[in-house]
Write a structure and sequence with these properties.
With 308 residues, the protein is of the alpha+beta class. It has two domains: 3-173, no CATH class; 181-306, no CATH class. 41% of the residues lie in helices and 11% in strands. The protein contains twelve helices and ten strands. It has helices at 3-10, 19-31, 41-45, 93-106, 168-173, 181-195, 199-210, 234-245, 249-263, 270-278, 283-288, 295-306; strands at 16-17, 35-36, 68-69, 71-74, 114-119, 130-134, 138-142, 149-153, 215-216, 221-222. Helix 6 (181-195) runs antiparallel to helix 7.
């Protein structure tokens, strides 16, 4: 038991989590990965204490800010596990780790927080295992830290928002590529066309577009079209769930008004709103809860935001 541990217990055992590391962990958890940050008793009593503790003695480039935990462990997905956001198979731990390594080497701002990472490039619990570190230059050595990917954060990213939008799954699958003008025009046209066929199709199309798997018919290939985080809006989601469960005119009016207000918000775009509102809900049920005479208005608003 270290003096640092004793002082921490005496202080009431406070915990905070580095913002950059927590943001990356949050995106992964939203997809369905298991990610650990808080160290267990073995971590807490280890001498010297390291980055899974709120009093690390191995901080870099400065002393670790107390009581921030600056590490995360990403566990491998289950065989066949699908993303809770996109519905597609989750990338392997090797794919995630290789993407993080490449982004760090390339200077991607979302990966700038990485101090070092322990990972297995070939398979879980087999093949080589490396520690790649950047303190500040890159160095590689062998590691015995297997079965997961460990990431330790630089101390100067404890409160940084540089990784707030850094979604490793989207990086692997290409879902973070921006819309180009042709993509926007195509989505806009599709939404307007579907609006004339019924709101079920509009909502389904918007949902698929927001999830980044809209199929571009003209060249018969799938393009990843949007960048978003499935953050979830409790107010909107709650109102729509109530409307779906037993809609009244007031329920529908309130849910639709809230949806339109969110779409018009300065801090949201249509992709984010569609992801937040529609994910996990049956589009046909939502459609049934909204009067058909509002379909064109909502579709036009989604189209306008996508084409902004």
């Amino acid at each position: 038991m270290t003096a640092a541990y004793t002082r921490w217990v005496r202080d009431g055992s406070p915990w905070k989590f580095g913002r950059a590391a927590k943001a990356v962990a949050g995106h992964l958890r939203a997809h369905g990965y298991t990610v650990y940050m808080q160290g267990n008793q073995q971590h807490l009593e280890h001498d010297p204490p390291e980055d899974h503790t709120p009093y690390s003695a191995t901080g870099w480039p400065a002393n670790a800010p107390y009581p921030y935990c600056l590490a995360l462990d990403i566990m491998p997905p289950r065989p066949g596990q699908q993303s809770l956001i996109t519905g597609r198979l989750l990338p392997s731990l090797q794919q995630l780790s290789a993407q993080l390594y490449q982004d760090k080497q390339a200077g991607h701002p979302g990966a700038a927080f990485v101090k070092y990472m322990n990972w297995e490039p070939e398979r879980d619990n087999g093949g080589p295992c490396y520690q790649d570190s950047w303190r500040p230059g890159h160095a590689r050595r062998n590691s015995t830290d297997r079965g997961h990917t460990h990431i330790s954060s630089r101390t100067d990213y404890a409160t940084s928002g540089a990784s707030d939008d850094y979604d490793l799954v989207a990086r692997v699958t290409g879902d973070d590529m921006p819309l180009n003008s042709d993509d926007k025009a195509w989505i806009t046209g599709e939404i307007r066309e579907q609006a004339n066929k019924g709101f079920v199709d509009v909502l389904g199309r918007a949902n698929r577009a927001a999830r980044g798997i809209t199929t571009v018919v003209e060249d018969k290939k799938t393009r990843n079209l949007t960048e978003f985080e499935l953050a979830g809006d409790a107010q909107i989601l709650g109102m729509l769930r109530n409307a779906v469960g037993g809609p009244t005119e007031d329920d529908v009016a309130g849910a639709t008004a809230t949806l339109l207000a969110a779409i018009n918000g300065d801090n949201l775009d249509a992709g984010q709103v569609a992801a937040q509102v529609l994910a996990g809900l049956d589009p046909s049920k939502i459609a049934a809860a909204i009067p058909s005479n509002m379909a064109i208005e909502v579709a036009d608003e989604l189209a306008r935001r996508l084409n902004a």
